[in-house]
Structures are given as C-alpha cells and as structure tokens.
Design a protein that fits this description.
globular, six-stranded mixed β-sheet, alpha/beta, 17 helices
Length: 529
C-alpha cells in the first residue's frame, strides 16, 4: 500500500514491496491516517495440525502494541500477515500506509543504510545519535555483533519513515545499555508499531497495549505487559473457578440422578407383578392401585427430569473455555559432575578478535561444579571467547552441551535427522520436553522448520538424552517465552554439572551463577564472584 511517508527527506529509499518511494523534507514528523486491522482472519501452515488463527479480529491503533504468547503460537506469522508477506486463507487484513518489517535476524546490511548515512538533515543525525551508529559499521558488517547489527537495522528502518512498523524480537542478544538506547530510539516513532518480544523491560517501557496470542486466537488488553498479564491471570483464575464450580454442580446432579434411579428401582421392585399368578386379577388390581398411591410414575418422571438436567449441564461444561494449564517441569536426568579436578586450566594470555582487537585474560580456571556468568557489552568478545575456549575444555565434545546464540541451517538439519532416527521411547522423551516448555509436540514434530524458540526447546530436549558434565550456553533465554525461561532456570539450578552462561538477563545469571567472568570495554577479562 503506497502512501505519503511519515518521515520525508530528499532522495529515494527502497520500500517494503521492493520498489522505491520518494522522500522530501523528512525532518518533519507529522501524523498520517495509517490503518491496520484484521477482520475474521484465519491462517494455517500445511504442516500444522491446527490453524494458527481462527477468525482473528483486531484493530491496531497508533503507538506500540506488544505481541506476546508462547513459542510457535503465531506471533511472527501475525507480523508477516500485517506486513503483507503472507496472505490470510480467510478474512481480510486492511493496511493503509507503508509497512516495514524487521525480522529476528540481520543477515545483510539494511537496504536503506547508505542513504541513511548520506543524509545530513537534523532528523538523520538525531536517529544516528539515538541508536549510536556510524557509517563505518557498513564496512565492518561481517564483524559486527548481533547487537550492533540490530541497532543499525532499526535506525535505518526508522529513518525511512514507515507508517506501520513491525519488529520481531528487537532486543535479542542486546546488553542493557544497548536495549535502553533502542527503547529511546523507538519512542521517536509516531505510527502504528507492532513488536513481538519476550523482553519484559522493553514491553513495559514501550507498549501501551498488548495482544496476547494463544490457541488460535488473540486478546487485546490495554496497559503495559505486566498489567495485561495480571489481567490474563485474573481471567484465567475466574474461568477456572467457574469451570470448577460447574463441575461440582454436575457431580452433585449426577449423584441426585443416581439416588432417584435407586428410589425408582426400589419402588418397582416392591410393586412388581412377576410373582403374581396370571389368573389372580385381584392381586394385580391391588398392585396397580398401590403404584398410583405410592407414585411409581412420579419416580420415573423425576428420573427423566434429572437425566435431562444432567445432559444440559454436561453440554454447557463441554462448551466452556478450558484455562491454559502448563506443567513446567524440566530436568536433565543424565547431567553429572565430572571426575576431573578441573575442566579448564588456562594460563594468562589473550585471544584475537580481529581488526587488531584482543581479549586479554588473567588466567581462567573452571572446576567441575563451578557456575560462571560470562558478561560484557555487545561486541566485547563474549561469543568469540567461548569459541576459543571450546577445544580447551578437558572433556570429550559429546559430554558438553553447547548451545550457540543461533541454531543455523546446518544445526537444524542435524536436529531433524536425529529426531527422525530416534526410537519411539526416546522420541517421546524429547517431545515431553517440548511440551513442558510450552510448545505443541505434534506441530514441532511435523514442522519442516521451527521458530527460533521451538528450535531451542527441541535442542534442549535432544540433549536430555545424553550425559553431560558441562553446559555452555550463549544467550540461552533468547527466543523463549517467559514461563519457559523460568522453567529452564529451575532446571539449571538443580544440575550437578558445571555451567558457563553468557547472557544479558541479569536476573537469570544472579539466580544461577556464583562466579563471573566480565569482559570490559578495553578487552580485559576480570574474574570474581
């Protein structure tokens, strides 16, 4: 949908449909009549057992709307429907204004980056400052960290002036300082914004409403994420109470039905003609009179009335919405403590990062029961340090659970081959982990590919089948929904093996780790509690 852009400046920039949209006087921020709404939208993938959306109707207003829900529940699909990259099978998506979508991955520099850095107007400078980006980042793109790439992508996209902006996990892999910069930068946007995120800090700081996506539908709730979640919990508790009360009434009604049936059987037994001679008409007449007097017909009527009542109550309960109930209990049953005295003994030294940069360390020691938090700003060299340490651990590779930041095509293909080759019992164990972490096992098992969150859950499920003495995880909470993060946290708290966790989630690290390796801005590693 073409429309006059919200930000206008001299030059042309690629639009979301692959064409070019002229811009002029982009420094002026002026509101437009952008629109985005879904009307009875249904959508499903061929490999899905159930539709992702059924009759979804929602209208998005100006400002930021958080899109939240379990992994694989359709959040990213909703963004693609909003941006026109997918078409609904039923219903309509009304979109007025230019829409841009920033995906989870930044594989190539944004198309508008060169024009962005070539512009000299005040707004371009303001966006560059807000996101802390400069033109040298284009030439350094292959060596940029995830966080640096994300800052540049968001800045260039915001600069082009979309009327509708869809963001998929914009703060994954980002340190606290970078996340705060991005939040401040995104607050400059004045159009209709949709953001998929599991980052509570981002959602609460940016969004004025949240769309909770689950089970083929979605519920829009006003307020910040924590307010919406509290409202959802109240609604769930109310629905559970209502269902429980209805089930209690149904049990009581069934007990009353049984009592009436027993009363009817007793009355029929007392007034039975089976032992009366066929020729004893006087006895038969007395029994008939007694039935009228004792009200056997009344007993039968009462039973029939209660049968109908129980049927009505059972049908009403069957039609009630079942509150979501997730049993989040993850374990690594084969995790064990290594017998060696040390898993890593590294004398003082340095590792090259490229471009003349190094990470210098005072000597690193990892014992079998140590729990280490690896911290530092984006681009400090945390992932590079882990890769340099990988061949130096005193363990065979199969005894190390190594979770990278991103599971690429080769890793996913290997996971698919291993999953398909599993015997039935092992396959069931893996799918139980997937279900425990809140994703639908049948959908994950049948999918040709997985969402990033589903892939991480499947990876963890596969690794529960093998003994491990060391877990090295690079941003393990990225792409996981919040209940799954808490579930993983509880599981890691109980494992006896060594942990090396690289994360920007301060709460996650504080609850799990007692040691810290911190890489400073100067590349020096400090070691301490």
């Amino acid at each position: 949908c073409a429309a006059t852009p919200r930000f206008i400046c001299p030059g042309v920039f690629p639009d979301s449909n692959g064409g070019q949209t002229p811009h002029a006087n982009r420094a002026i921020l002026r509101p437009m009549a952008a629109e985005l709404s879904f009307s009875r939208v249904s959508f499903e993938y061929p490999t899905c057992a159930e539709p992702l959306f059924r009759g979804l109707t929602v209208r998005f207003s100006e400002g930021w709307t958080g899109i939240v829900g379990p992994n694989g529940g359709g959040k990213t699909t909703l963004l693609h429907l909003a941006a026109g990259r997918l078409a609904p099978e039923e219903g309509t998506v009304r979109r007025v204004g230019r829409c841009d979508l920033c995906a989870q991955t930044d594989d190539a520099p944004p198309a508008a980056a060169e024009a962005f850095f070539s512009s000299y107007d005040a707004e371009a400078y303001a966006v560059r400052e807000a996101f802390a980006v400069d033109e040298t980042m284009l030439t350094r793109w292959p060596t940029l960290s995830f966080g640096e790439r994300r800052r540049l992508t968001l800045a260039a996209t915001l600069f082009t002036g979309p009327d509708i902006l869809c963001l998929d996990e914009p703060t994954n892999h980002l340190d606290a300082e970078t996340r705060d910069r991005i939040i401040r930068g995104l607050r400059r946007f004045r159009g209709i914004g949709l953001v998929v995120s599991h980052d509570r800090t981002l959602l609460d700081a940016l969004c004025t409403r949240c769309l909770f996506v689950a089970d083929g539908g979605a519920t829009l709730r006003p307020g910040r994420y924590d307010e919406g979640r509290a409202q959802a919990e109240r609604e769930r508790a109310l629905a559970l109470d209502t269902l429980t009360e209805a089930q209690d009434r149904l049990r009581a009604a069934r007990s009353e039905l049984q009592r009436r049936r027993m009363a009817l059987q007793g009355a029929e037994a007392r007034d039975s003609k089976r032992k009366v001679s066929r020729q004893d008409h006087d006895a038969k007449a007395r029994i008939n009179a007694k039935r009228i007097t004792d009200g056997v017909g009344g007993f039968a009527g009462a039973v029939g009335q209660q049968v109908r009542k129980v049927g009505r109550m059972a049908r009403a309960i069957a039609a009630m919405e079942r509150p979501e109930s997730r049993r989040l209990l993850l374990t690594f049953p084969l995790a064990c403590r290594a017998e060696a005295n040390a898993l890593l003994t590294l004398p003082p030294g340095a590792f090259p990062l490229g471009e003349g940069r190094t990470v210098r360390h005072p000597g690193l020691l990892l014992r079998p029961g140590d729990r280490v938090a690896l911290t530092g700003a984006n681009g400090a060299g945390k992932s590079t340090l882990l890769e340099r340490l990988r061949p130096r651990f005193a363990l065979p590779p199969e005894r190390i659970l190594w979770l990278p930041q991103a599971l690429g095509p080769e890793a996913r293909a290997a996971m698919r081959r291993r999953l398909d080759a599993l015997p039935r019992e092992a396959f069931a164990k893996v799918m139980n982990v997937v279900a425990t972490l809140g994703s639908e096992p049948s959908r994950v098992a049948a999918a040709k590919d997985w969402s990033p969150g589903e892939a991480r859950k499947l990876f963890l499920g596969l690794r529960t089948l093998a003994p491990v003495a060391l877990m090295v995880m690079d941003e393990p909470t990225n792409h996981l929904d919040l209940p799954s993060v808490e579930c993983l946290e509880a599981a890691l708290a109980k494992v006896p093996c060594a942990l090396v966790l690289c994360s920007h989630d301060a709460v996650f690290l504080r609850r799990l780790c007692s040691l810290r390796w911190h890489i400073g801005h100067d590349g020096a590693v400090s070691v301490g509690p």
